[in-house]
Design a protein that fits this description.
The complex is a heterodimer. By secondary structure, chain A is an alpha+beta fold. Chain A has five helices and 14 strands. In chain B, 33% of the residues lie in helices and 32% in strands. Chain B contains five helices and 13 strands. Classes of the chains: A alpha+beta, B alpha+beta. Chain B: Pfam families: Proteasome.
């Protein structure tokens, strides 16, 4: 499946009472930075967010499918709402069905939300493999940034939102420096549950990556002989 | 030796749409190529969909002409049921739906632009069917890669119509200079509220005189 408008790595991490997602606000066309200021995280329901890396047109399509599911559920008006875990399961089924038709959605989907008053974070890959975990990293971020998230989570299982934001920003900074398709303008979005049990989708935050003091010396060995 | 006689007709192109203070400008080159042969040097890539909603086409000639044709029909039908001209967003999404649902067989990319109640709107539809609403300007086609940074640098919001015309003409001619798949003449389309769309045509020799002097 050819990817024409690709979106970059997404990072996600659970904190004490919520989930944070970080992604670059840019769409690439091959190795050209093509569209800027793109919203990467979509709100499916009052308790669920979705984001993805891969082909952006497929992401727009899957978002539409899930939103339609949510709308039809809303119209039932039976005070039952689809939980993020169910959306994750549904997304897994759609991805797997397409995989079986040899027409996969070229996506690594990330589903985040609040499930039974606890943070939920899961991914689905092109084959329809569901993974539910405390932290996620897609694309090249899985190699470069995920170890940073693993270490941070190992040191502190109940981070505050600010600490989680710092971890994500640090990891995205490394990703920006080491990923050709990286871009210094991030969107940090999230969803949390407060002490009263009220679920709140956080206002997406625009963050500019700062690489000050990350360029220690001009030396580089390019002429070994 | 491989025969070049049956190469698909391709709109290797430079197309763009820019907002200005008081309206919208669409610009395109006029070259259609079949491999290295220029099969139409006077092509019109700016196609009307309905009233004053236009689409700039790039990609395969056959595909874009057909999809634009279906979109025109669909919009005509829709506007009769709706009782008024549909929004630019509707037009753009109709194009997007064709592009996305048939992405395995189509090679199309569009810039759909028009005015909604005096507000200019530009939608870019990329190769796979991804749709983006652009805030100020959009450029697409093979030639656009050469001038995206030029537009990034020179464009400012709320420019006057004359400034934007000059900028667009300059950008398209620079793209034609470097991109072999773009060339010929420059066609423009100016959309302003309560005004008939204005089609402007800059002849090839006029364009050539604007090419940079390469040292």
């Amino acid at each position: 499946m050819e990817v024409y408008s690709s979106c970059g790595s997404v990072l996600g991490i659970k904190y004490k009472n919520g989930v944070l997602l970080a992604s670059e606000k840019i769409i690439n066309s091959g190795k050209t930075a093509r569209y800027f200021g793109i919203e990467r995280t979509m709100r499916i329901s009052p308790t669920c967010l979705i984001t993805a890396s891969g082909e952006y047109s497929d992401f727009q399509e899957v978002t539409t499918i899930l939103k339609e599911r949510q709308e039809s559920d809303f119209c039932h008006n039976d005070s039952h709402s689809i939980s993020p875990k169910s959306f994750h399961s549904y997304a897994t089924r759609i991805m797997f069905q397409r995989r079986n038709k040899q027409k996969p959605y070229a996506l690594r989907l990330v589903v985040a939300g609040i499930e039974s008053a606890k943070p939920f974070l899961g991914t689905v890959d092109v084959y329809g493999t569901p993974i539910v975990d405390h932290y996620v990293a897609t694309g090249i971020g899985e190699h470069i940034a995920k170890p940073i998230l693993i270490k941070a989570y190992a040191e502190n299982q109940s981070m505050t939102r600010e600490e989680a934001e710092k971890v994500l920003t640090d990891a995205m900074t490394v990703l920006f420096m080491r990923d050709c398709r990286g871009y210094p303008h991030l969107e940090i979005s999230g969803i949390e549950i407060d002490a009263n049990g009220k679920v709140q989708v956080l206002e997406p935050k625009d963050v500019e990556i700062n690489t000050k003091n990350r360029w220690p010396s001009p030396n580089s060995v390019d002429l070994p002989i | 030796m491989q025969s070049d006689l049956n190469l698909p007709v391709d709109l290797g192109t430079t197309i763009m749409a820019l907002k200005f203070d008081g309206g919208l400008l669409l610009a395109a080159d006029s070259r259609t190529s079949q491999g290295s042969y220029v099969s139409n040097r006077m092509a019109d890539k700016i196609t009307p969909l309905i009233d004053d909603i236009y689409v700039c086409r790039s990609g395969s000639s056959a595909d874009t002409q057909t999809v634009a044709g279906y979109a025109r029909y669909s919009l005509d039908f829709h506007s009769q049921q709706l009782g008024k001209r549909p929004s630019v967003q509707t037009a753009a999404y109709i194009l997007r739906d064709f592009a996305y649902q048939n992405k395995e067989v189509l090679s199309v990319s569009f810039i759909c632009a028009g005015l909604d109640d005096e507000k200019a709107r530009i939608f870019s539809i990329a190769q796979g069917g991804a749709i983006f609403e652009q805030k100020n300007y959009a450029a697409a086609g093979s030639g656009s890669t050469y001038v995206l940074t030029y537009l990034d640098e020179k464009y400012r919001p709320n420019m006057t119509e004359t400034e934007v015309r000059e900028l667009a003409v300059r950008a398209v001619s620079l793209a034609m200079f470097r991109d072999n798949s773009s060339g010929g003449c420059i066609r423009l389309c100016v959309l302003k509220p309560n005004t008939k769309p204005e089609r402007i045509f800059l002849q090839g020799d006029q364009v050539q005189s604007m090419f940079p002097v390469h040292r």
